Amino acid sequence: MTKLAVIGAGVMGETVFSGLLRAGWEATDIVVTARRPERREQLAERHGVRTAAANAQAVAGAETVLIAVKPQDLGTVLDEIAPVLSPETLVVSLAAGVATEVIEARLPAGAAVVRVMPNTAAQVDEGMATLSAGAHTSDDQVEQVAKLLSATGEVAIVAEKYQDAVTAISGSGPAYLFLLVESMIEGGVHLGLPRQTATQLAVQTVYGSAKLLKETGDHPSVLRERVTSPGGTTAAAIRVLEDHKLRAAFLAATEAARDRSRDLADGARSTSRSAGDR
């Protein structure tokens, strides 16, 4: 049997199986699907994995199926693989906003499904992935997925009702940080720094601060206060950020991301019901 079939060889699909290879998996235990022949050739040459053009071909006999496609493409993929899916196969979905019940409805009865929300930091093995089990998934199967994804970063197991909030914090979170760094760089350039210097200062400051936060375990407010001397430069900057309601903006942003995740989930449910009616 194939240990892992990866449906969708985009950024996240490749990130996961390349992390497994770095963790010691054998390339021959992985089969990856891609529509374009040149992409399949590229993946085979780069990683040594087996490739397939047809999703059903890849899934037949697989122990675990990792689906890394866009939410709007998920229904088509599920319909393709359902007829050949083994009862023992574990299905792992990385499709944002699509509930396990929606996935289960398009697979054979009793299929084990795990929903995952990863983020792009997995590309450097520092990702944050959250897992939620479907109705027919055992604790052992959840742990199996957690072990698999730990090759690309940290893993947390949460109740599925939290996944929309998770999407807003860690799923979309890297974009918030990239926007912050972009703004810091532009601020440095505005103050007269060469762009290369401003970039180095901003990137290393964010990287080092995140590492300090993680390794000390101190609350962010404690670390912030240590940097903020009364009447100093940092205090002046933070006053401006607070005047512009930075906290309120982040709260509104995370609520918007959560609500959009819910909208995607509702759309997926409607699509699934329509397919069932046909």
Keywords:
278 residues, alpha/beta, Rossmann fold, ProC C-terminal domain-like fold, 2 domains, 12 helices, Pyrroline-5-carboxylate reductase, pyrroline-5-carboxylate reductase activity
Question: Order of helices and strands, N to C?
Answer: EHEHEHEHEHEEHEHHHHHH
Our estimate of the beta-strand percent is 5-15%
Label the structural class: alpha/beta
Lateral strand order in the biggest sheet: 3-2-1-4-5-6-7-8
Compute the gyration radius: what is it? Answer: 22 Å
Reported by name, the CATH topology of the largest domain is: Rossmann fold
CATH superfamily of the largest domain: NAD(P)-binding Rossmann-like Domain
Total beta strands: 8
- Low-pLDDT stretches: none
Global shape? elongated
| Count of structural domains | 2
Number of helices: 12
**What is the oligomeric state here?**
single chain
How would you sum up this structure, described in words?
With 278 residues, the chain is α/β, with parallel strands linked by helices. It has two domains: 2-161, NAD(P)-binding Rossmann-like Domain (Rossmann fold, 3-Layer(aba) Sandwich), CATH 3.40.50.720; 173-244, ProC C-terminal domain-like fold (Orthogonal Bundle), CATH 1.10.3730.10. It is 56% helix and 15% strand. It is built from twelve helices and eight strands. It has helices spanning 11-22, 37-47, 55-59, 71-81, 100-105, 139-149, 163-171, 173-190, 195-216, 220-227, 233-243, 246-277; strands at residues 2-7, 30-33, 50-52, 62-67, 90-93, 112-117, 127-133, 153-157. It has an eight-stranded mixed sheet. Helix 2 (37-47) links the parallel strand 2 (30-33) and strand 3. Helix 7 packs across helix 12 and helix 8 crosses helix 9 (195-216).
